[in-house]
UniProtKB/TrEMBL annotation, chain A:
GO cellular component: plasma membrane
Entry-linked InterPro entries: ABC_transp_permease (IPR001851), ABC_UrtB_bac (IPR017779), BCAA_transport_permease (IPR052157)
Lineage: Bacteria, Pseudomonadati, Pseudomonadota, Alphaproteobacteria, Rhodobacterales
Membrane-spanning intervals of the chain: 370-388, 417-435, 496-516, 547-567, 579-607, 619-636
Signal peptide location: 1-19
Membrane topology: Multi-pass membrane protein
Keywords assigned: Amino-acid transport, Cell membrane, Membrane, Signal, Transmembrane, Transmembrane helix, Transport
Protein name: Branched-chain amino acid ABC transporter permease
Subcellular location: Cell membrane
From TrEMBL, chain B:
Signal peptide: 1-21
Keywords: Signal
Top-level taxonomic group: Bacteria
SUPFAM superfamilies per UniProt: Periplasmic binding protein-like I
Organism: Roseovarius atlanticus
Protein name: Branched-chain amino acid ABC transporter substrate-binding protein
Automatic annotation (TrEMBL), chain C:
Superkingdom of origin: Bacteria
Subcellular location: Cell membrane
The protein's name in its UniProt record: Branched-chain amino acid ABC transporter permease
One MF term in the entry's GO annotations: branched-chain amino acid transmembrane transporter activity
Transmembrane segments: 21-39, 45-68, 75-100, 150-173, 180-198, 230-250, 277-297, 303-322, 329-346, 366-383
Classification lineage: Bacteria, Pseudomonadati, Pseudomonadota, Alphaproteobacteria, Rhodobacterales
């Protein structure tokens, strides 16, 4: 009741202000197109947009802009249109188009919002172009260029050319000029103009250029008794070749009504059924028709009797095909333009391939660096100490969740990531030390039992993470300055977050080398690894060293977790995703050698990308084949790429 | 004379049935994973069922009986689903089961439900190609989600070049198969359809997204139809954002991303991408407002509602009405009473249960907004669910009609029932 | 008593007399089987539900695969973290026939109503579209070539896991991959296999796997309550035979060599034994046993899918054997039965929640944690597992008056030195 009263008061309050100019020319125009304005559909909305854009009314631009921004509302009773901002779920603040007068706050129950979909919005954008191209404001002009890029029309060419003359911003001018040439390729009036534009793009790789050229070279397959001798023939095809299988060629003739159809098994069976006469078809017992051959025979007999249409036999098909020539004709553009486009595309193709290879290499390096990052902690605990830690993946996960928790507390993304890294190190370092103290030190000479015990820890940690954080993936959002990617051209690009991971991997490599080769800790670690008793008698405490080394390895895994969480996702199972790969990386590279781990990671990363490239529709297969390859690889180089030799190998 | 006597007896039994035959309380089995990988999605549905049962009991139960929920946990373990279903039907003797999420778990339960003549309500959008006598499918069939969304792409967004990206399991495989042949029937050429499958939880999306962007070289509007499941979406949308692919350049429509999934994502970069469902939380009706209010009051303010929840809402209410109508919870009687049951949707309009055990429901398409909700930009009339798709040659000849034909897999060409049990 | 299981008495006596443990074990098993049958719904008074009979039958199969695991790990020192791959392959092999035959009967039945008798092509197409229709394909992949033949698929139950083990083992043992490396390699093997099967292109219905396996073709009218007891019998029989076979293998000279390899491989090699062949034989044998166990397990579970081959399953297998006590066959059986039944109980939601003030500990959530932690505890504090309790008992009954026992059995718990 109170709500009703409120609405009533609101209605009364808004009544004086709602004295909308129902007879203003813009409103009348809108009323003419009320249907499409209220519920636009891309296939039918064009006349409406054209009418508004071409009306010459001063408000036309506002109408289109508000409509595009989903701010156009229609009064359900009067049918009048206003534009309005949403205040909350139930109220809007309305304005009249005529004179842009405020109508005050209105309840939204009385209005219906028009929601143009993105297809319609694109069309509105295209219509707005002519208003925006010469706007004062650079941002508006940029929007106009964006709009043309998305949905170019032939009518844009002229205003665009005019706008280039007056454009002041150099970057925008460059874009506009490029766009002008692309539009010329597509919509240019004369062939010479278009060919010139195509040739002007020598050496360009852009997706937009290829997008403009490819439609020009579309062809259609045709058949005739003699190949016509004109420039429109793109190429002549032979039936039975790879480009034109026999069936396709024959089907073309059938579809043009030139040749007799072939018959499918089901149709043949249906024809036989239709002609069953008692127990037999064409004198053949029905019960014997349980093979295709028998059915063929029966059908042939029926055809002889003339009850069904004869079907084409193989020799007949060959004969018919021999009588016709098959060729493709250009349909996308006049032949001269199409040929020029084809030349240009051929030139682009090889360079695209080279660039794709480069992009693939970048991806492979990036994946390799992710694997390296995941494996480097393991290279310390397993490679240096010889301790199998199956809970390594869970340290990665702990690091990632630490990052997540920090981000919950500190909303600033840059600061939180900077804080998360040392915190993740601290958390996993502590966890590693605890694990070493409590479990691993008791099992130093029983590697298989270490493996099993750490598995137990891994299972428990995973489940605990699930219990605390749930099974759903948690977001770890990268700071804004890591958004986007480094673009070399339209093919080669790499996201900044991957570059950051690559850099981090290099930093870790340097850190590892520094610690191992330049610090006292490293010296002691190496001493303890090679001969714990001797080291102990030199005054090194092996227990302490083992503990610190293990903590160090675990801590690095924690930092890797933050990085991996930033690039992918944080789940309780993320560690398990990386553990087998990490072990593979260390084993393939050669245990006990950081360079080996680096090589191993690169090998595993490039291998996976390479297989993915060979079999693009299935990423799962790539992982299977990669593991198979590694299993085989270990058969032939059991000690990895870089095998330790001599006394170190015994350690 | 005998006939008359018999019919009188039948009438008598029918009359007395509600009074005597009904064992109280009526047990409702809830077969959703409460642990394991699917727990996140399915626990919500368990809570939904408990809320619905509570609400019904406040209204006085069914047939004068209290409803009692029997909740078991199949722990996202597919064989365990079959075991738990058997336990529900034989040990707890439930009258109906509401449950399952993944297709494979449904396939695991099917033989048991059919053997013991149970009744299952399955609330999730699925790949179709199935119609069991003992299952009511309250989620969307492909023609209630995938096909309308593709039509939207074709007609409203003018997409001419399609990338079908999916996780490698049965729902995306079948859906993409159907879509591929549908697109071809709409004149889209082979080379304009790019299909890719990735494993569950896939995270390395850079190459696939680059491949999709490269489709633009054909000079046609590119659109992505995503059947990517669960966690993998996080990496996928992150990569889209990183490569600067906006919804205006390459729109993505997802069939497995709803309010619940978006709550794990930063949606500011995803504004404008699409999802197709039969329900969105943002639907502006009174019934929906009430539903959301009840849900939030029970579960907390930050919880969202989603499509499978609405499916359970409709399914449960239809079952209650069917039981009232049949006067018993006996499975075959309830099944007969289910056909033609109507119940108002939360999004407006009315859902109808068809003889092929699917619902007629409206299809909604929403654009992702910055607050993690969907802006509904298209809502169709009720679309009748189709068990067997019309766009695959093997299935086009099949139809399901449990009312007239008593068959879920009826070959209209040979006019025979291929099998009474379902294919699992 | 337990010691006699392994060290053996006079070699001339029949195996059963030398190892009374076999008799005891078989008697227990027989008693158990008969007891369950009497209590079952299918043949008895119906005190045990059919689903629990199935659980018990499946548990027996798990005991069998644990036995196989103990053979390679407890007696030969090969910690295989991929044994469930063999188990799963056995299940797939039998599942293919079950599925093919069941579908064939349905298709033939439905086509018999047609006007024309069906052609072989039609039947084959019909089966294919039924089986693969749900995963969006309609043609038979080559891997199904012999699915129509029960004998051939039964042979596959033994041959496929056996061959995989033979090839894998040959590569691995030949290049002297041992210890943790071998464990990780076996884990990689099962991961690769699981990922392969996850693909739809593998032809085994990808993530969906093979389902409806509990419905035996041609026996549609037999209720599951009866079928479940049949399978219980078959599983018990297989377990009994497996136990007998395993005891025979680890007894006598062959067994001694095996334990020698476990305790010090290099020494055995220097003594002139072909260590690789011994290992290969045991590895393959145990894979075959695992395959048979799988073939009995999955028709009871009703569905097999690639998740069953995931590395974690094999790790659980190692957990069972370790908790039961490795290096003793009955230990593996007890461990598998104990832990898997406990697991079913805890995850089934039957276990009561523990309430600690505001906290409510649900076993569904915390059982895995408990399992993981208890695993660490067993490794650290009770390396002999549950079997160790029997030792305590046996020692109490017949105190050891022969001084320190340096027999091969004790060596099991002294792993090779890590420095090797």
């Amino acid at each position: 009741m109170a709500r009703l009263l409120l609405i009533l008061t609101l209605l009364i309050a808004s009544l004086p202000a709602a004295a909308q100019q129902a007879d203003a020319p813009i409103q009348q125009l809108l009323q003419e197109h009320a249907g499409q304005l209220a519920k636009p559909s891309r296939t039918k909305v064009a006349p409406t947009i054209d009418a508004i854009a071409g009306s010459g009314l001063p408000e036309a631009q506002t109408v289109l802009r508000k409509w595009q921004d989903k701010e156009l509302w229609q009064n359900t009773e009067t049918g009048l249109f206003i534009w309005a901002e949403e205040i909350d779920r139930d109220t809007i603040r309305g304005f009249d188009f005529a004179g842009d007068t405020a109508l005050g706050e209105l309840p939204d129950d009385a209005f219906e919002q028009s929601k143009p979909n993105s297809g319609v919005r694109k069309m509105i954008g295209a219509a707005l172009v002519k208003f925006q191209l010469t706007a004062e404001d650079v941002a508006t002009r940029r929007t106009a260029i964006d709009n043309i890029e998305r949905d170019a029309e032939a009518s844009h060419l002229a205003p665009l050319r005019e706008a280039i003359e007056t454009e002041t911003s150099p970057t925008l001018k460059a874009r506009a000029e490029r766009l002008e040439r692309l539009l010329t390729i597509r919509f240019g009036e004369t062939e010479e103009e278009r060919i010139a534009a195509i040739e002007g793009f020598q050496g360009d790789l852009g997706v937009d250029l290829r997008g403009a050229l490819n439609p020009l070279v579309t062809t259609r397959l045709e058949a005739a008794e003699v190949t016509p001798d004109g420039p429109e023939v793109a190429r002549v095809l032979k039936p039975g070749s790879e480009a034109l299988p026999r069936e396709d060629a024959y089907d073309l003739l059938v579809s043009e009504g030139i040749a007799k159809p072939r018959i499918s098994r089901a149709d043949k069976a249906a024809a036989l059924v239709a002609n069953i006469d008692g127990e037999a078809v064409a004198g053949i017992q029905v019960a014997t028709l349980d093979t295709e051959d028998a059915r063929d025979m029966a059908y042939a007999k029926l055809a002889e009797q003339g009850t069904v249409d004869p079907v084409a036999t193989e020799p007949e098909i060959d004969e018919t095909l021999g009588e016709y020539a098959f060729y493709e004709v250009f349909t996308g553009a006049p032949p001269a333009v199409a040929l020029a486009a084809m030349d240009a595309l051929n030139g682009i193709e090889t360079r695209v391939a080279v660039n794709q290879a480069a992009d693939l290499a970048l991806d492979a390096i990036s994946l390799g660096s992710i694997y390296f990052l995941a494996a480097i902690g393991l290279a310390i605990t397993f490679g240096v100490m010889g301790v199998i830690n199956m809970a390594h993946g869970e340290f990665i996960m702990m690091g990632a969740y630490t990052g997540f928790v920090v981000q919950q507390i500190i909303p600033d993304q840059t600061l939180s990531v900077i804080l998360a890294i040392p915190l993740a190190f601290a958390v996993t370092f502590a966890a590693g030390v605890a694990m070493e103290r409590l479990v691993i030190r008791w099992l130093y000479h029983r590697p298989l039992e270490t493996l099993l015990a750490t598995f137990g820890i891994s299972i428990a940690l995973q489940q605990i993470a699930k219990n605390i954080f749930g099974t759903q993936a948690r977001p770890l959002t990268a700071p804004g300055w890591l958004d986007g990617s480094l673009v070399f051209n339209d093919i080669v690009s790499i996201s900044y977050i991957r570059i950051a991971i690559f850099v981090l991997a290099l930093l870790f490599l340097a850190l590892f080398l520094l610690v191992m080769n330049r610090t006292r800790l490293g010296l002691e670690v190496r001493a303890v690894t090679q001969n714990p008793r001797m080291a102990a008698s030199m005054g090194i405490n092996p227990d302490r060293i083992n503990m610190l080394t293990f903590g160090f390895g675990s801590g690095i895994a924690g930092i890797a977790g933050v990085a991996i969480g930033l690039y992918a996702k944080v789940t309780s199972e993320m560690g398990a995703d990386y553990i087998v790969q990490s072990f593979m990386t260390v084993v393939v590279g050669g245990v006990g050698n950081i360079w080996g781990t680096l090589l191993g990671a690169t090998l595993v990363g490039s291998l996976q990308k390479g297989i993915e490239w060979l079999n693009p529709s299935n990423t799962l297969a790539a992982q299977t084949y990669m593991i198979l390859f590694i299993i085989l690889f270990i058969q032939f180089r059991p000690r990895g790429i870089i095998a330790l030799k001599g006394r170190a190998a015994e350690a | 004379m005998i006939k008359k006597l018999l019919s009188t007896a039948a009438v008598l039994t029918a009359l007395s049935a509600p009074a005597f035959a009904q064992d109280c309380p009526i047990k409702v089995g809830v077969l959703h994973s409460l642990s394991g990988t699917m727990a996140i999605s399915e626990t919500t549905l368990k809570d939904t069922m408990e809320m619905l049962i509570e609400q019904q009991n406040e209204k006085g139960g069914v047939l004068g009986c209290e409803l009692e929920a029997v909740v078991v946990d199949p722990a996202s373990d597919w064989p365990l689903f079959a075991e738990k279903a058997r336990e529900l039907l034989t040990v707890h003797e439930v009258d109906v089961i509401f449950g399952n999420w993944t297709s494979v778990s449904r396939k695991s339960v099917l033989p048991v439900i059919e053997e013991l003549n149970g009744l299952l309500f399955y609330p999730v959008q699925y790949e179709g190609e199935e119609s069991s006598k003992n299952v009511f499918y309250t989620g969307a069939a492909p023609n209630q989600q995938a096909i309308p969304a593709t039509d939207y792409f074709l007609e409203e967004l003018g997409v001419e070049s399609f990338a079908l990206l999916g996780t490698d399991y049965v729902y995306p495989r079948t859906t993409n198969n159907i879509l591929e042949s549908y697109l071809k029937s709409k004149g889209i050429a082979d080379e304009d359809i790019f299909v890719n499958y990735t494993p569950f939880g896939h995270s390395d999306w850079s190459k696939i997204v680059s491949d999709v962007v490269a489709l633009g070289a054909g000079g046609k509007q590119v659109g992505v139809i995503s059947t990517i499941n669960g966690d993998a979406n996080v990496g996928f949308y992150k990569e889209l954002a990183a490569q600067g692919v906006s919804a205006d350049d390459i729109p993505v429509v997802a069939f497995s991303v709803g309010e619940e999934e978006l709550s794990g994502l930063d949606t500011s970069n995803l504004v404008g991408h699409l999802a197709a469902w039969n329900y969105f939380q943002s639907a502006d009706t009174d019934a929906n407002a009430e539903w959301i209010e009840a849900w939030k009051a029970r579960m907390g303010d930050d919880r969202v509602t989603n499509d499978p929840m609405e499916a359970h809402y409709i399914g449960f209410n239809m079952w209650v009405n069917a039981v009232e109508e049949a006067g018993t919870t006996e499975v075959d009687a309830v099944r007969e009473a289910m056909y033609g049951q109507e119940f108002p949707n939360l999004t407006g309009g009315t859902a109808v249960m068809l003889p092929n055990h699917h619902l007629a429901k409206p299809v909604l398409i929403g654009e992702i907004q910055a607050d993690g909700q969907f802006d509904i930009i298209s809502q169709t009339e009720e679309v009748p669910g189709d068990a067997w798709t019309d766009y695959l040659p093997e299935s086009a000849v099949l139809k399901s009609d449990w009312q007239e034909l008593q068959c879920g897999m009826y070959n209209t060409e040979t006019e025979t029932c291929v099998q009474i049990k379902s294919n699992y | 008593m337990t010691d006699s299981t392994l060290s053996g008495a006079s070699p001339r006596q029949p195996l059963v007399l030398r190892f009374p443990a076999i008799l005891i074990f078989m008697a227990c098993l027989a008693l158990f089987t008969v007891g369950v049958t009497i209590l079952s719904e299918g043949f008895g008074i119906g005190l045990i539900s059919t689903s629990f009979v199935k659980t018990l039958g499946k548990t027996l199969c798990l005991c069998l695969v644990a036995l196989a695991m103990d053979l390679v790990w407890g007696y030969c020192g090969i910690l295989s973290l991929g044994h469930m791959a063999f188990f799963g392959l056995g299940g797939y092999a039998i599942g293919m026939w079950l599925m093919y035959e069941r579908t064939r009967l349905i298709v033939v039945e439905s086509m018999s109503a047609q006007a024309l008798p069906p052609t072989p092509e039609q039947i084959s197409d019909g089966i294919a579209s039924q089986i693969f229709g749900v995963v969006g394909a309609s043609e038979f992949p080559p891997i199904w070539a012999v699915a129509h033949s029960l004998p051939l698929q039964l042979a596959a139950v033994v041959l496929v896991p056996g061959l995989l083990a033979l090839v894998f083992g040959w590569f691995a043992f030949r290049s002297r991959v041992t210890g943790v490396y071998l464990s990780i390699l076996t884990q990689a093997m099962t991961l690769a296999l699981a990922l392969y099967l996850f693909q739809n292109d593998s032809g085994l219905r990808g993530n969906n796997g093979l389902s409806g396996l509990q419905n035996l073709p041609g026996l549609g009218n037999v209720p599951q309550s009866v079928v479940s007891v049949w399978f219980l019998w078959a599983s018990a029989l297989a377990l009994a035979l497996g136990f007998w076979l395993a005891t025979w293998v680890v007894s006598g000279k062959f067994g001694s060599v095996l334990r020698g390899i476990r305790d010090d491989e290099a020494r055995v090699r220097f003594l002139g034994y072909p260590v690789e062949s011994y290992k290969l034989f045991v590895f393959t044998l145990s894979a075959v046993i695992a395959g048979i166990a799988g073939a009995l397990y999955y028709p009871q579970a009703g569905i097999i899918n690639p998740a069953e081959l995931a590395p974690i399953a094999s790790i659980y297998l190692a957990v069972w054997v370790a908790i039961g006590g490795r290096g003793r066959l009955y230990g593996a059986v007890i461990g598998a039965a104990f832990v898997s039944l406990l697991s079913t109980w805890f995850t089934g939601g039957q276990a009561p929640d523990i309430v600690l003030g505001n906290w409510r500990i649900q076993w569904v959530d915390w059982w895995t944690v408990l399992l993981g932690v208890s695993f660490v505890a067993v490794t650290l504090f009770a390396p002999k597992g549950i079997g160790g309790l029997f030792d305590l008992l046996a020692d109490r009954l017949t105190p050891n008056r022969h001084g320190a026992d340096l027999g091969p059995d004790q060596g099991a718990l002294r792993e090779k030195e890590a420095s090797e």
